[in-house]
Each structure stands twice: as C-alpha cells, then as structure tokens.
Amino acid sequence: MTGRREGGTAGGTPRRFFLVERYVPSMSAADVDAATALLDGMTDAETRHLGTLLIPGEDTCLSLFEAPEQVAVQAVNGRAGFALDRIVEVQLFAPANDASG
After folding, report:
1. What is the mean pLDDT of residues 37-47?
2. Residue 9 maps to a domain
3. H or E stretch including 53?
4. Which residues pair with 80 in a beta bridge?
5. Which of these, 50, 36, 47, lies nearest to 80 by C-alpha position?
6. How far is it, in rounded angstroms, from Cα 88 to Cα 52?
7. Residue by residue, what is the 3-state secondary structure of 59-87?
8. Quick check: is 99 in a domain?
9. Sign of the C-alpha dihedral computed for residues 59, 19, 78 and 50 taken in this order
C-alpha cells in the first residue's frame, strides 16, 4: 500500500504542515477540547487547525496545522492562549484511495 504526500498549492502558496507538541500534565480531555475550540476560532483562511491528538499516558498533546509559515502557527496558538513546547514542519502523507473497497 502506498500513500501520497500532501502538497501542491493553496491559492498559489505552497502548502506547508506543522506539528505542535505540548506537554499538558494538568489538562483533562475536556480542557484540551475547550482549548482546541479556541484554536479553531483563531484560525483563518491561510492558517488551519487540522486536528489534535491527546496522549494521556504521556501527558502530551499534538496538533497539526496547515499554514504558510511557522510564525503563523505560533501566532494562532498565542492568540488562543494555548501554550506550546515545540513546532516542527512535517510532511503529511494521505492514504491512497483503495479501489478494492
């Protein structure tokens, strides 16, 4: 099985993806849900919050963003008041369409 790398352009701007890592030992799932709702309200057409994973056993939260640059991701998180520990640019691979059904 092969996947395809997400890329291309959105409105003439190359699509870039960023992973935000957070250490969240004091946050419950409800707290993370509320924080991600704030993130969703702070994003715009160029900077999109694609989703968040909470890993309770690791006290870790990972969020994926599509944005023109890293500083845009940092700004959105800052406006939402959602502290972060690290931002890294990543390549996103989508699953290939499975014709076998």
Report:
1. 89
2. no
3. strand 48-55
4. none
5. 36
6. 15
7. CEEEEEEECCCHHHHHHHHHHHCCCCCEE
8. no
9. negative
State the residue for tokens 């694609």: 50
pLDDT the model gives residue 42: 86
Contacts for 5 with CB less than 8 Å, ≥ 6 apart:
91, 92, 93, 94
Domain with 69 in it: 14-92
| 97 is a domain residue | no
When pLDDT is cut at 50, 70 and 90, the band that residue 55 belongs to is very high
- SS3 state of residue 54: strand
Q: What is the CATH number of the domain that holds 36?
A: 3.30.70.3090
Checking if the pLDDT of 86 tops 50, the result is yes
Give the total number of structural domains in the chain: 1
Using the predicted structure, report yes or no on whether residue 46 has a pLDDT greater than 60.
yes
In a domain, 101, yes or no: no
Which SS3 state, helix, strand or coil, does residue 94 take?
strand
**Residue 29 parent element (H or E):** helix 29-42
